[in-house]
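Annex B. Sample input.
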Amino acid sequence: MLKSFLLFTAVVLLVFTSVSVSAQDKGSKSAPDMHAKAKKLYDLDCALCHGATGDGKTDLAKDMQLNMVDWTDPKTLANLSDQTLFDAIRKGKGKMPPEDPSRAKDDEIKALVTYIRQFAKDHPAPAAAPDAQPASTPEPAPAAPPAPSR
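Annex B, continued. Sample output.
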């Protein structure tokens, strides 16, 4: 009787665990899937103003007199947290409309933030100029030989 009970309990736990794991798998998306979704979302909703490469140089932005930042410049995103970017996308900012929750879920917006940050990684910051060498002091010209005395 005890063996039957233990066997039954083990089978129930095994079934419960496998159902739980497969439910989690259905809810999570792989990184390549999320990257593809973020790219599609960017291409549909963001590129028109921000540009295909994220440089912000588009005809529409120019026509609307929008001052778009250049996301390919690492300094542009350096001081912006992921949450700041998320909030700007989700809630909108200035003339930028908010991203409707029916078009993009929160995890897709987070993937979009990662996608946007990739623009700067694709364009590394220019190397710092080498330290300037101190100007060398010119050596004095050799003294002219003394004039012959008479």
